[in-house]
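Field log, afternoon session.

UNIT: design team B
ACTIVITY: writing a sequence onto a fixed backbone
BACKBONE:
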């Protein structure tokens, strides 16, 4: 009897873990990378991405760039924006005082990792610039969450 209960608990935990890890059903980066529009002259591109892990999966705040909604931090997903060369401040709606400065030059692509972090009372999403090599290694398996998921 005890062994059956332990098996049930293990199966239930595995199901919950799998559900927490499941990325949204969008198109994977690896399937769309070759068809992305070229960056327009005078602009750069900023990719925002988040690994597909169950850790902090309930935290899915909107992301703003210079106080304008650009996407949502969802596990296993990415989105990108093209902007004129300049310096931008990125923050989440849940924690607008914690900003990340992103200097962007013409033709340049920057990558911003979104990672869950937990404090004593609440959790938040931390934004950090990532190297192109590390970002590209992870992007392939992430799903595009683009414009349809904006928090207005």
């Amino acid at each position: 009897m005890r062994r059956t209960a332990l098996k049930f608990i293990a199966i239930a935990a595995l199901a919950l873990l799998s559900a927490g890890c499941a990325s949204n059903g969008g198109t994977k980066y690896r399937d769309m990378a070759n068809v992305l529009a070229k960056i327009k002259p005078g602009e750069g591109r900023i990719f925002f991405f988040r690994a597909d892990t169950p850790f902090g999966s309930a935290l899915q705040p909107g992301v703003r760039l210079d106080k304008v909604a650009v996407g949502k931090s969802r596990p296993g997903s990415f989105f990108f924006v093209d902007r004129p060369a300049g310096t931008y401040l990125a923050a989440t709606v849940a924690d607008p005082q914690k900003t990340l400065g992103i200097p962007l030059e013409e033709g340049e692509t920057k990558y911003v990792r979104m990672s869950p972090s937990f404090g004593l009372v609440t959790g938040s999403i931390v934004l950090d610039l990532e190297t192109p090599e590390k970002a590209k290694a992870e992007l392939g398996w992430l799903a595009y969450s683009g414009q349809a998921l904006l928090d207005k």
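LOG NOTE: Confidence is low (pLDDT under 50) at residues 3-23, 148-152.
NEXT ACTIVITY: expression trials, pending approval
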